[in-house]
Specification:
Helix content: 25-40%
Number of helices: 13
Low-confidence stretches: 167-208, 362-401
Strand order of the largest sheet: 1-2-4-3
Strand content: 5-15%
Distance between the termini: 30 Å
């Protein structure tokens, strides 16, 4: 089966080819890691004039810095624990997982700890590490972000083409664009921002990105984000108003209370959830409106997530951009009943619309008109659902608008 031109493949052959290529990539990566481990053991990178396996991977193999680091780390781990290669080849662990757990592996525990992170995502691996090595809660912190300043690098370390040109008006090079002083707020349940010092090397010119959500210990997370001055004022006001209940003004408790109210309000708006539901007053037989009692029942049945199930039994379950979906489309006289309404994420709602109505170019005779210029009323009049989605290639090689 040729994969040189995937447009000519059937759906089944394309899925098979992608799975085969992904499997081949994993096997080739494991083979590369094994060879890098042997190359490192023979010090061939030093013979080639490179001081480390990392610089060898970047300079000779033309890998990106992140790819080189992950493969270097995996090669060094594989030298000590060769069974890692089989785990990489069949996809039970990936290079990111190896990088995260590598500092915590010993000859006594490596089998147990590798088994504990098998098949887990990066966030799940972080939670496992938080169970193994719980950290204390980070102190609550709200601070004003400073204006970014370029690091001071001695001119002797810079080539002539990169030497700074003094600004005659201010006496130095202009500061790069960034967050103006006072325009940013770092609100976190414990976040520390590293600072740059004079003489710092160019490689450290940009601050490392903090993980927005990082597990610290079982059931404890550090949450970091940047907000506006208005958000800071609202937080201070909420802290003052809650002093009777939260005397310390702990931002974590303030945000948790605020999110409780927000989530409750959003669930009421989207799913008509209420403690005292009223009886339905009825509606027209062919109305597009979904009754409140149907929304509530569908929410409970589908557990608030996309209920699309693939042929192999995999359930999507996504909770972002969830929409109400007519199993029998409204354009085909589908009624808004509990049996005919289901939750779908936006992607699967659009996918099932295409499966029923056909490719978008055939929708209601609208032809190749871009969806951005199609009036919504025209679609509704023709009982046509035009989803907002990315371009989709067709079996004949053409691309929908």
């Amino acid at each position: 089966m040729s994969t040189s031109n995937p447009i000519q493949l059937s759906d089944g052959d394309l899925v098979t080819a992608v799975a085969r290529l992904a499997r081949g990539e994993r096997e080739m990566t494991a083979t590369l890691i094994a060879h890098l481990a042997e190359l490192y053991g023979r010090w061939l990178h030093e013979r080639a004039g490179y001081d480390s396996l990392f610089t060898y991977c970047v300079g000779v193999l033309r890998l990106s810095e992140s790819a080189a680091y992950d493969r270097m780390k995996a090669a060094k781990v594989a030298r000590r624990y060769p069974e890692l290669l089989a785990l990489l080849a069949d996809g039970r662990v990936n290079l990111t997982t190896v990088r995260l757990v590598a500092p915590h592996l010993t000859r006594a525990n490596h089998r147990e700890r590798l088994a504990a992170v098998t098949g887990k995502s990066k966030r799940q691996v972080g939670e496992v590490l938080a169970q193994w090595f719980p950290q204390p809660d980070a102190p609550a912190s709200v601070r004003k972000l400073p204006s970014p300043h370029p690091p001071i690098v001695p001119a002797a370390f810079l080539p002539a083409s990169l030497a700074p040109v003094p600004n005659p008006t201010v006496g130095g090079p202009p500061a790069p664009p960034g967050v103006a002083d006072g325009d940013g707020l770092l609100a976190s349940v414990g976040a520390s921002v590293p600072t740059m010092t004079a003489g710092a090397p160019c490689a450290l010119a940009s601050l490392p990105a903090l993980e927005p959500v990082k597990p610290l210990s079982p059931d404890r997370y550090r949450i970091t984000f940047t907000g506006s001055a208005a958000l800071c004022e609202k937080l201070k006001l909420a802290q003052d108003l809650l002093r009777h209940a939260v005397p310390s003004g702990d931002p974590a408790q303030v945000f948790e209370r605020a999110l409780d109210v927000l989530v409750e309000d959003l669930v009421k708006r989207k799913f008509a959830l209420t403690e005292r539901p009223r009886e339905s007053r009825g509606q027209a037989e062919h109305s597009r409106n979904i009754p409140a009692e149907v929304k509530r029942a569908v929410l409970i049945r589908d557990r608030g997530g996309c209920a699309f199930v693939a042929p192999d039994g995999h359930r999507c379950g996504a909770r972002g951009f969830v929409e109400f979906h007519h199993v029998q489309p409204y354009g085909a006289r589908g009624k808004p009943t509990v049996e005919n309404i289901s939750l779908r994420c936006r992607a699967h709602n659009a996918y099932e619309a295409e499966m029923f109505y056909g490719p978008r170019r055939q929708y209601g005779g609208l032809g190749m008109v871009p969806e951005a210029v199609v009036p919504r009323g025209a679609c509704q009049a023709a009982h046509v659902f035009v989803p907002a989605r990315k371009q989709r290639s067709q079996p004949n090689g053409r691309i929908d608008p």
